Amino acid sequence: MAKTKGYKIGMVNKQGMLFKDLCEMYFKRCEANGVSHHTTNGYKNILKYFYEYLQYKGVSEEFYCYEFTAYTFEDFKVHIKQVRKVKDITVNSYIRKLTPMLSYGMELGYIEKFPYSYVKHQEVFKDIYTEEELKLLLKKPSKEDTTNRFAEFRNWAIINFLLGTGIRALELRELKISNVDLKEGLVNLSHTKNRKPRQVPISNVLHKVLVEYLQVRGGTPNDYLFCTSYGDRMPRTTLQMGIVKYAKRRGVFRYSLHLFRHTFATLFLREGGDIYTLKRLLGHSSYRMTEYYLHLDGKDLKCATAFNPLDKIKVENTMIKMK
Question: Within a domain: residue 316?
Fold first, then answer.
């Protein structure tokens, strides 16, 4: 084999990689793989908490990958629970955003492999919107109400849309008018969390709402379906605060956008829908994710007695003689 002049092969210094540089490499990988900015922003936010933790412990920001051990991981979990005063389920949500970068470092050999686990917590089902709350939220605004009439009418349409489709707030903000096919009765989602397009059907009630809304909204096929009063894409905070004000004016003091998704999933099953269809509507890759949204209470489960095999077996109404 001929020698190549002017080039010397060197060993990669696995210990010389700063953790923040590893994370930057991971973000570039995410960008190359088409991971959404929403997801990568979540990773970056947890890094801020991690470097706050290092500062709290008196550790330099020049933190190397080889220094990240099982102890660091466990101590960080305790720190965010105690210092940030968050629940166990929130600790786990933070950790889930940190572990992809850890796994990446382990994969490349910069971080020594160690098993990590989440905090065990008592699972608590989140209450969905009550029927009384939904009736107040779904009541159409009065045409005599001149207080920012378009925003009020738009927010009414948005709540109908979220409850009628179960889509994410992020997906709703990306919708264009052209994504809504009223003739076929379908919403075509092209900007989704997992980057996989999907379709959701438009119910009869939602169809009427959208026809009425579009008459007020106007616009061209390439315009955003739910926009600001100036026709621009709605920022996340504008959407959230708009729904907060809308709900409070109606005497409803729960106004989580994501709670509409939970409510859709639960009511879909109560009305006889199946979990396979629900999984597709919600855009989940696994049934485990779908089950997280289910909030079946005792009354719902009691209905399962109609399918109990014991009640289906016919037994002769005669007593057996004991031996």
Answer: no
Question: Mean pLDDT for each consecutive 10-residue tract of the chain (323 residues)?
Answer: 46 70 94 85 92 90 92 93 86 90 94 84 70 92 71 94 93 96 93 84 93 94 95 94 94 92 88 85 80 60 53 55 55
Model pLDDT, residue 12: 46
Shared-domain flag, residues 155 and 224: yes
The answer to whether residue 245 is catalytic is no
**Catalytic option among 44, 196, 258, 280:** 258
Q: Is 193 a catalytic residue?
A: yes
Same domain as 138, residue 253: yes
236-249 helix and 149-165 helix, angle to the nearest 10 degrees? 100
Q: Is-catalytic flag, 168? A: yes
Identify whether residues 247 and 169 lie together within a single domain: yes
Residue 142, phi-psi category: left (phi > 0), alpha (psi -120 to 50), beta (remainder): beta
Residue 318 lies in a domain: no
| Residue that has been written with the tokens 């470097």 in this structure | 51
**Active-site annotation holds for 261:** yes
The vertex-242 CA angle with 237 and 247, nearest 5°, equals 130
Q: How many helices (H) and strands (E) does the chain have?
A: 13, 3
Catalytic residue among 53, 129, 246, 293: 293
Pairwise CA distance, residues 137 & 111, whole Å: 50
Range of the domain at 167: 131-304
**Token code pair at residue 119:** 């905090």
Residues 144 and 260 in one domain: yes
